[in-house]
Amino acid sequence: MNRSFSWIKTLFPAFLILLALWFPRLVDAYFLHLAVTFFLAMILASSWDILARTGQVSVGQAGLFGIGAYTAALLFKWIHLSPFLGMLAGAVISVIVAALLGYLTLRLRGIYFSITTIAFAEALSVIWLMTPGVTGGAMGLSTPPLFGGDRQQAYYLILGILIFCLLVVWMIEATRLNFAFTAIRENEEVANVMGINPTRYKVLAFMISAFFTGFAGGFYSHYNTYIIPYEVFGLGISIACLVMPIFGGLYTITGPVIGTVIVKVIEEYLRVTVSYGHQIAYGLILVLVVLFMPDGVMGIWRNKILPFFKAR
Amino acid sequence: MEWADFLQSFANGLLIAGLYAAVTLGLTLVLGVMGIVNFAHGEMVMLGAYNTFWVFTLLGIDPLLSIALSGLLLFFIGLFIYRFTIRPILNDPPLNQLLLTLGISIFLQNLAMILWKTDSRSVITSYSGMSLSLGVVNVGMTRLLTFLIALGLTLFLLFFLYKARPGKAMRAVSENNTASWLIGINVQKTYLLAFGVACALAGASGALVSTVMYTYPMVGFKLSLKAFCILVLGGLGNIPGALFGSLILGLTESFVGTYVPEGSGWAEGISFILIMVILIIKPTGLVGTRRE
Amino acid sequence: MSLLEVSGLTKHFGGLAAVQMVSFAIDRGEIVSLIGPNGAGKTTIFNLFSGVYPPDAGEIRLDGDDLVGHRPFEICRRGVGRTFQIMQPFPHMTVLENVITSGLFGRVPRVPMKRVEEEAMELCRWVGLGGKMGVYPRNLPVADQKRIEIARALAIKPKLLLLDEVMSGLTPTETTEAIKLVRQLRERGITIFLIEHVMKVVMGISDRVIVLHHGEKISEGPPQRVAHDQKVIEAYLGEQIDNSEESSC
Hints:
The complex is a heterotrimer.
Chain A: H1 6-26, H2 29-52, H3 61-79, H4 83-104, H5 110-130, H6 132-135, E1 141-142, H7 151-174, H8 176-186, H9 188-193, H10 198-224, E2 226-227, H11 229-232, H12 235-248, H13 254-273, H14 280-292, H15 296-310
Antiparallel strand pairs in A: 1-2
Chain B: H1 2-34, H2 41-59, H3 67-86, H4 94-116, E1 131-134, E2 137-140, H5 141-163, H6 165-175, H7 177-182, H8 187-212, H9 219-234, H10 239-259, H11 263-281
Antiparallel strand pairs in B: 1-2
Chain C: E1 4-13, E2 16-26, E3 31-35, H1 42-50, E4 57-62, E5 65-66, H2 72-77, E6 80-82, H3 95-105, H4 113-127, H5 142-154, E7 160-164, H6 172-187, E8 191-195, H7 199-205, E9 208-213, E10 216-221, H8 223-227, H9 230-247
């Protein structure tokens, strides 16, 4: 919670946004696709971080992601709902489910909460597999290519949502929400005695997080044109959601973004070298971060690199 | 013939409960002695299963004989993991411990995928197809042997904890590690040994798993969740509770498999649903906990 | 009507009665101390007041309103502020941010951020943390951490302030300063209820003293009277004899 170098803080992001807007003209389809997956991952990382700010460490975001994905896909299948509306619907349904789950898990602390979220995602996976008539089951669901295959439009859509997500995080940090979230995270009981209603803020954080995770799921189902329960409710998604912000630096705006970039680069490199198991990097990174750099990349930036500049 | 179905279902549930109990023993031990939930415990089982598979496939050694091998291998792997990753974080907040062990879990899952691909492996022995008739009930030979060995492992652990010096030290430490330290117990060594023994038990139960289920990289994750369910059911960190929880889970899965339409698919979800229902109603687990 | 009225307050943990049929009242503007041997139930009473857990029986009335059954944040907003015996400032917030937090949420109606910030800075200066507002609590000595606790509790503009052993661990100079601070708080119109072990403080600033032993109220009244109460002496001496018996084993 410090304020310094404020001119860099406004100019640099503006520069990045301009670069991002210009980006599609500079590269070919492959890199455009890569950028889309990067932006999607940043949304997942950022929204996980929002929830984590209240001390709720979810290892089951895939549950919300999958709900978003299937809402969009099923609504398209049943009533030919347009992709964008489908994604919004996915976001809304995710929010509702998250609100319910949030209320039910209010009294769960620490790892009990985490275990429950894992069970939540896995339970959804089983339910989906056992109801093929409604959900398509193990065979999955298909949708036609998003925007008729126009990668650029998809790119701008996901970029827009990412910017919106980061703006929301920025707003959280700029208002009293930040104090509430932090206080609850650091000591929920004391926060309560200080006048903060933990229920309201914990559920709120869950709902905000779910909106973006659900939207990301909806986007994914249309962009990928094919989803199966094993993937969208899978542990891999839940892990991805948490490794990136933890590596990048929790409770910051830039942490999840930087974390995503670095982790995803490693992942993409591994993906072309081994066919399965490319998430091995995730496991290694988690272990190394906990042992050697608990504040993530942003922590190193703040504690080791920034002081050099301030010393001048 | 309803009665026969019921008994058969009961028998199957009992047998699988034995396996689940064996799997959960090590997790319970670590939780009780050190207060850490080892998210990578399932992967220790997975490694034990793969070890048994390869030893059987390449060397022809019967899986139920190579249990000791898997146990030994995982014992040393456990010591290694403890020394370099667990010991540094013993006093960290539980969330850090969760993330670290989760990281090890993910690492091992993916390592297995890279080394051995994602195919499901089976261990088929000469007696795999055999079954015993006990009155109205048919009992698969492998399942029966597995159950008996699992029982043996449980008795071995109880004997170790109550009669052997290092085991008694573990019990003392799990009750009160400051008092234990004050009376001269080397708490650090006890932790190290407990973790090693827990992983050894996991490895041994992995050998059992390989004969009764398919062996594949994610089998550990599946079993981890069942083990968590058992912990939540039976109380965290105590062995009788683990046995009780295993029984409940095993029987529930079996009955659901028999009596619910398409039950075998739904049975897979029992552990998840139980976890959620129990924790939501009673946030500290069904029996509550002596140690958080 | 008294500011705070407690009647028949009872709380059990497991089979043990931590607080047993305790009744008393505190008037506006009083400084009342709660004393008693260790384990007498003092912090339990504070926890019951701030709503950390509900009593098994009894009433707690603040200005006539029953506090029982309300959640901690609701009780806080009715004007009950408290400090904690084991100091618990939010570790990743600066001193100022700690004080701002309770100011933002503990008051009704809500106060805009700007004003909360200004008032928080004022409060920090008033308790003596003016130069340390941007520091993180873990880098501060015990006395300063207690100041943070007090400032944080004051930020909600409480009617009743519960101070849980704020004087323990302070040097004589710091204790004198703390006593001065408590008197100034009373001048500001805040009613103060303290748990204390430091007898010099209790005798020095209390209008009244309430004595708890094994969860029951055994004495109540002006400090001098309580100090000479036979029951109180026995309770403390009894504890001392028990202690010396144990140590001679």
